[in-house]
Design goal:
CATH architecture of chain B: Orthogonal Bundle
Distance between the termini of chain B: 56 Å
CATH class of the largest domain in chain A: Mainly Alpha
Number of strands of chain A: 0
CATH topology of chain B: Helix Hairpins
Structural class of chain B: mainly alpha
Largest interface: A-B, 83 and 71 residues
Helix content of chain A: over 70%
Helix content of chain B: over 70%
Radius of gyration of chain A: 21 Å
Strand content of chain A: under 5%
CATH class of chain B: Mainly Alpha
Number of strands of chain B: 0
CATH architecture of the largest domain in chain A: Up-down Bundle
Strand content of chain B: under 5%
Oligomer: heterodimer
CATH topology of the largest domain in chain A: Four Helix Bundle (Hemerythrin (Met), subunit A)
Largest sheet of chain A: none
CATH superfamily of the largest domain in chain A: NADH-ubiquinone/plastoquinone oxidoreductase chain 6, subunit NuoJ
Radius of gyration of chain B: 18 Å
Distance between the termini of chain A: 74 Å
Shape of chain B: elongated
Number of helices of chain A: 6
């Protein structure tokens, strides 16, 4: 395949993944049903995984799908289902009373940093290099257990603490002792 | 194609879009679960920006990828804890609506 054609296909892929991200992200923040919002989040996560693939980082794309789509989404789904109200609405958002000033303020909160940073990115960005060769899993592992071993150990401690904290918080004291 | 639109800028703009969507969501959502979803969006944007910076600039490649892996681990830990916190709040208040979770009247 020619170099130019490959370049064009990469842009097409980028557009496709960007479309996934936009559609999913809008569903995630706009939808009144939280289950639909979660589906939008999952769509966005797949889009980001596709972008990792475009940048020739297949391990990260795989981890993205494994950790985010596989674990975090399921956790959020548990949160939605376990906070069901007695009226039966499974985590519905009442957006209607928020239309108006709140929506305007939310748009302001989102656009202010976005516009400032977008200007900076477009004006100051260095020229992109050609894509470097893929980092192999062995290199990543060596990096993680060599110079980054402290961060590696700390993240396992953080995960353990989070898990223990979740168990302690969720522990139900028996009533009427 | 505009000259400034190199792949690095494109990926960073996508990450920025995720940040903006997350900020909008966390401001407008009323329930804690909705806010959690918005936080995940923002964290994913951070990961995307990290990988783009590592892959397309002279910066260390492995550093960016390992950093993104750590962000993913932190997101998983954060989601676990927030799930537990939402459960406790729901048990105590009977709702996960952030406007109704208050013990002071006024």
């Amino acid at each position: 395949m020619g170099e130019a054609l490959q370049q064009q296909l990469a842009y097409v892929g980028y557009g496709l993944y960007l479309l996934l991200i936009i559609a999913g992200g809008l569903a995630a923040v706009m939808s009144t049903s939280l289950v639909r919002a979660l589906m939008g989040l999952i769509l966005t996560l797949f889009g980001v995984a596709g972008m990792f693939l475009l940048m020739n980082a297949p391990f990260l794309a795989f981890m993205q799908i494994l950790i985010y789509v596989g674990a975090v989404s399921v956790l959020i789904f548990f949160a939605i289902m376990l906070t069901k109200t007695p009226e039966g609405e499974a985590g519905a958002e009442n957006m209607l009373e928020w239309i108006g000033m709140r929506a305007g303020l939310a748009v302001l909160a989102a656009l202010t940093p976005a516009i400032i940073m977008a200007t900076l990115i477009v004006k100051k960005a260095p020229a992109a290099l050609a894509l470097k060769p893929e980092v192999t899993l062995a290199q990543l592992g060596e990096f993680l257990t060599g110079p980054f071993v402290l961060a590696f150990e700390l993240i396992s401690v953080v995960l353990l603490a989070a898990m223990a904290g979740a168990v302690v918080l969720g522990f139900e004291r028996r009533k009427g002792k | 194609m505009i000259p400034a639109m190199n792949p690095l800028v494109l990926f960073h703009l996508a990450a920025l879009l995720l940040l903006a969507l997350g900020l909008y969501g966390i401001t407008i959502r009323k329930t804690l679960v909705g806010m959690l979803i918005s936080v995940e969006l923002m964290l994913n944007g951070a990961g995307l920006a990290l990988v783009a910076s590592a892959r397309l600039t002279p910066a260390s490649d492995a550093l960016g990828q390992v950093g993104t892996l750590l962000v993913m681990g932190l997101a998983a830990a954060e989601a676990t804890l927030v799930l537990a916190i939402i459960l406790v709040v729901f048990k105590r208040f009977g709702t996960s609506d952030s406007a109704k979770i208050s013990t002071l009247r006024g």
